[in-house]
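Model it.
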Amino acid sequence: MTMTRWFLLPCAIGFATLLAAPVQGEGIKVTNHESGSTIRYPVALLRGELKDRSAKEVVVENRSSQRPSRQIAGVALDGNFRALAELVPGENQLRVSAGSNAIELVLHYHPQTNPYFVRVIYMTDSTGETDYQSQFDGDPQNYADKLDTAIKLLQTFTAERLNDIGLGRHTFNLEFDNRGRIKIHALKGEKPASYYYGLSDNDWYGHVNEWVGHQFPDSHSKNIVIAAYTRFDPVQKKVFAHTALGGGKLGLFGGGSIFTWPNTLQDTFRVFGDETPIDAEKVHEDSAGRKTVWATAATTMGATLHEMGHAFGLPHCTDNLCIMTRGFDHLNRAFTLIEPRSQHNEQPIPFADRDVAYFAPVSAASLRASRWFQLDERRYGTEQKWPTFRLDRSTGNLRVRAERGVRYVSFSVNDDARGFRDFWSEGTSPPKEVVLSADEIRQLAPGKDWTVNAIDDEGESRSQSLSQLQQAGNFIRTWRFAKKWLPWTDHQQFPAATSSTLTEIQRKALAAPVVESDEALIDFEPHFPKENRVNVAGYAALKFNSPERQTVKLLTGSDDGLRIWLNGHIVQEKLALRSARPDDDEASIELRKGANLFLVEVSQATGGWALYFRLVDAESRPLLIDSKGNLMPQAESPAVPVQ
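Modeled.
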């Protein structure tokens, strides 16, 4: 059967109740891992309980490893503990000890085979200088060690927190060398630091995004870039080349605080307990005002994960503990048991499980559906078949369709994620169509305007705003596509089409079945063979009846070139390489009483291949074609119910 989960506004939750069976021995119990289980990332976070409530430390030794991280000391407080173990591929025999008590735990590490991964880049300016700014004398300038440690912790955090809300230990893949270290790409930028200092955040992001795209043109990576040349100027009291931006394939973060990051996995618990004040006369203070090493490490590592989340397609959310809000300030809490002193608290602060940073369900479910979180390689279709939406203007019901099955539907208001539904299957495929009622939408997306996002079973996603969906009803969306196309190799002129060729194309189009688009955009690509989608012209026909002889306005947009014949005469043409936008072109045309016929040619170079097409009367009312093929003004319908 298909299981549907329905979530409204996300709220902070604690650890899931469906945890693994505890591993316990004399005085020690591991509560979040079962001996003999398998995980797909190299650093295991162990949570558990101790009989000795006075213990302050737990030591984990991986007897299967000869790496420097073979033994890691964790923390304990009031009978609870947190610890880390770095695993090697295969079986790992772990000994967990606290004082005279010890237990044995076996974990299997099976590296991911997912080819979609996160690439870690340390970007210098054109000098190639890798040193980062630090307040500490004798800083080892070990950027690779710090990035290796921090990104592994972010990978572990993501897996553990998704598992805690019942989605399993899914997380992103990384590039590892044969020593188990993350491959850190130290890349020299094109410009001196002074050039980057002069750019706005958005221009800097755009420059880095383009530069990384040229360096790594693959389609399987998300890139996290840490800037080596971020600098705080103590005279101007200003930080240069510092930002936190993410989206598309890139997360960009300034490297001005990585001096606070742990050097090794063994160093993690020291860093998250380090109350050393940040010297704001020497370095950028980036700790949400808490002004300590531990807080700076928590905020900046958490913000790095936040920007990676944007690169994975996540918007902000409204849950204060979500990584996609300021929850990232509390990333440390997943690895510790008490928050040390800072400028915000004179005494250490104990916290409950429900106060630990996490990915809120609306964000976590989106990650779970992403190609970057599938753990193992999957065979995906070569054709892009986006989810589609159709809004019923009379009822407010929304239909979401995906040929490969709908995995996830979410709503956002003012760019903040709100409610969602996800669809996981037991022995069957996810539904190809989901209908959400107006009442459901009001609960999932309280607000006057919203945007819906859907992800299909292959991780393809699509978003549409309420206004876009409402406007879709103003466009003509029923067409017949000709099973014939013409070459378009010379983009300086229209395809060569004789009258006899056009007659044949028109005949083939009229013999084809009617295809109706859910949305205003008419996508040509699915209607032509894969081998004929570059440097070609495709054709679609529309036959209808006009109740009278009348002059109407034709409004179109295309990707790329466009020619339109009405009853055999050209009424619109645009020779261009462009993206499709509604109402880019306008023409006044005359319809005859009775039968009329449009033949549309859309020329395609590369990329998108699509058409917007609508008609309006002299009073600017949309003209639509009913099920009997008759042209008439759009019927008045109730507004879509919203709050």
